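User: Sequence recovery, please. Input:
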């Protein structure tokens, strides 16, 4: 049931509540055209699911010319990099949402764009990458045909699966943040600041997706989508609450990262001040000793202690005593 990049580009299934069977794309397109033309009621026990993987111009022509999907929506599917949104057309709605996947080897997060078309008796998914949530739901539908009887139920299942998949990412972010804290407080400043900057960038990317995606889910709660039964509203409310929770976690992580960066900057500043104090203390000690050596190094004829037998030893002792006194003074002050 799973799909891969080298598998069929378009998979089509039809169900009537009792059975689910694979159909060819021509029959699927005809079902979509019929649904758009006749506007069947939302409780019609028939559902057609079309899944399009890695769309090219050929798949775009199928959606636009044979399934009669609006050209602007098809263009968005091809171009990608769309902001999460919901657009309303005659007899169907077009959604853009994002899923997340973790690359544990690189400790990176990937965002995958998914386009959803919700009609009276059809549901279309379009995506560039393999989306495990879509494959799993298709497999469950084939095993249990009674699970999905209308497009609103499928829309909830897909959005719920996508939102639930954010939580493993949040757990990964939490563990990663703990590593950053350990690095900052253990003195690994340089590597920790680079990791913190990369981590903050991922948080910003995910937050930019979650904010408009939250608004998309709010559209389902306003009861203005004709293909969503009123009894589904509490379920969409639950998904909306989950995405709010994820957004709050992301905001908390961003604040913690900002705090860690401030702590790291403070540690760096303290370390710099400590280094400057050490250099300043030793500079004063050496300059004081050099001052004595410079005075006795002047080549004047009439100069006290110039021909004194113990003058050389006296100068050395004076320099050592002066240096030792300054060294003790700076150590008592905590500079050295």
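Assistant: Recovered sequence (336 residues):
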């Amino acid at each position: 049931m799973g799909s891969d990049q080298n598998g069929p580009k378009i998979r089509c299934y039809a169900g009537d509540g009792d059975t689910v069977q694979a159909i060819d794309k021509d029959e699927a397109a005809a079902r979509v055209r019929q649904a758009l033309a006749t506007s069947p009621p939302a409780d019609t026990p028939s559902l057609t699911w079309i899944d399009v993987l890695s769309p090219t111009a050929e798949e775009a022509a199928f959606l636009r010319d044979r399934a009669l999907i609006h050209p602007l929506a098809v263009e968005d599917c091809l171009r990608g990099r769309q902001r999460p949104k919901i657009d309303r057309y005659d007899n169907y709605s077009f959604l853009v949402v994002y899923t997340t996947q973790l690359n544990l080897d690189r400790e990176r997060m990937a965002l995958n764009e998914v386009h959803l078309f919700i009609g009276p008796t059809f549901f279309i998914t379009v995506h560039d990458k393999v989306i495990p949530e879509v494959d799993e739901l298709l497999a469950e539908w084939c095993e249990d045909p009674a699970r999905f009887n209308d497009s609103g139920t499928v829309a909830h299942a897909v959005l719920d699966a996508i939102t639930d998949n954010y939580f493993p990412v949040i757990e990964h972010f939490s563990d990663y943040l703990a590593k950053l804290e350990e690095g900052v407080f253990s003195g690994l400043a340089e590597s920790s600041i680079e990791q913190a900057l990369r981590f903050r960038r991922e948080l910003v990317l995910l937050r930019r997706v979650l904010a408009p995606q939250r608004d998309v889910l709010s559209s389902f709660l306003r009861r203005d989508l004709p293909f969503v039964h009123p009894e589904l509203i509490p379920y969409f409310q639950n998904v909306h609450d989950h995405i709010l929770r994820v957004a709050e976690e992301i905001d908390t992580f961003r604040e913690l990262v900002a705090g860690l960066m401030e702590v790291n900057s403070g540690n760096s500043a303290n370390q710099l001040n400590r280094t400057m104090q050490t250099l300043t203390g030793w500079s004063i000690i050496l300059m004081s000793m050099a001052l004595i050596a410079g005075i006795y190094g002047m080549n004047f004829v009439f100069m006290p202690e110039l021909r004194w037998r113990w003058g050389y030893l006296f100068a050395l002792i004076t320099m050592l005593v002066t240096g030792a006194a300054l060294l003790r003074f700076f150590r008592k002050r905590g500079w050295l």
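The CA atoms of residues 214 and 244 lie 7 Å apart.
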